[in-house]
Amino acid sequence: MNTIIQEINKGKALVSDGAWGTFLQQKGLAPRECPEEWNITRAADVLDIAQSYIEAGAHMIETNSFGGNYFKLKNYGLEDRVYEINKAAAQISRKAAGPDHFVLGSVGPTGKMLMMEEVTEEELYDAFKAQSVALEAGGADAIVIETMTDIEEARIAVKAVKENTRCAVFCTMTFDKIIGGAYRTMMGISPTEMTEALVEAGADVIGANCGNGIADMIGIVKEIREVNAQIPILIHANAGLPHYHEGATTFPETPDDMASRVKEIIVAGANIIGGCCGTTPDHISKVGQVVKSLEGPISH
User: Fold this and answer.
1) Buried-exposed string 65-81: b where 16+ CB fall within 10 A, e elsewhere
2) Averaged pLDDT, 168-195
3) DSSP 3-state of 223
4) Which of 105, 113, 121, 183 could disulfide-pair with 140, CB 3.0 to 4.6 Å?
């Protein structure tokens, strides 16, 4: 099978998967339960989620390992099981993906702040190294470092993956739209600053996830493309901004709503389109239908 980068270089858009957290909750994940432990205790349920996205038409699926780093697992007393949990996560998604789909090993932030001296650069590096090595051992084709807000943590994560695995390195940050229409992470990083820093760090694919529906992601893609015309871009958009009503969180964008902006975001320069919070296999199926209808390479 060609690598993901080789597939992107053919000029066609690829489809990624959708939300995992809400899916796990539907299957019974309790509020204070560790999602990643399900890779050991509820593997069949995790496999079912992965398979549902493959069946929906995704070219690649993530792993149930977003909070699988040492620091997050320590909150559950599972810090000694980093390798076991992450390797199992990748093995489950690999089983669902088979030989003709890709597996993205999901790596989220540690929750520790460098600037507050809660953690050292070396400790961050070691945590990302341990997690990514385990994901590669389980069969991940690429590591996707996602939902980052601190550029230094993102840079360290990219370096750790690059220096310790043979996997392609993806990195996405989470941006909010601020007054005036600009985009910034919680730590004040712009898409331009992200692009410059992560390309220099060696990321193979960059982009954005969470924080925005697909419409606002278009502006982020355009800003990245103004800085760098070549770097592949991955977008995992929410199903709109969350609404809180009577103790429940809902996301307003339907599968058709999301699909209606797919051509526009591809023309803007996105290479991989998938979903984040609130998206379902139905969203991914609709996205895939649009991508399939856009025959041949897309002119950006």
Assistant:
1) bbbbbbbbbeeeebeeb
2) 96
3) helix
4) 105
| Amino acid occupying residue 221 | V
The span from the CA of 237 to the CA of 214, in Å, is 5
Classify residue 189 as exposed, middle or buried by CB count within 10 Å of its CB (0-12, 13-18, 19+).
buried
Does the structure show a pLDDT above 70 at 159? yes
Average pLDDT of span 70-83: 98
4-293 has which fold? TIM Barrel (3.20.20)
pLDDT at site 299: 47
Mean pLDDT of 87-101: 97
Token pair 């996301």 in the structure block, residue = 251
Q: What own/partner pairs with CB < 8 Å and gap ≥ 24 does 7-12 have? A: 7/59, 8/205, 8/232, 8/271, 8/272, 10/297, 11/296, 11/297, 11/298, 12/291, 12/296, 12/297, 12/298
- DSSP track, 75-130: TTT-GGGHHHHHHHHHHHHHHHHGGGSEEEEEE---S--TTTTSS-HHHHHHHHHH
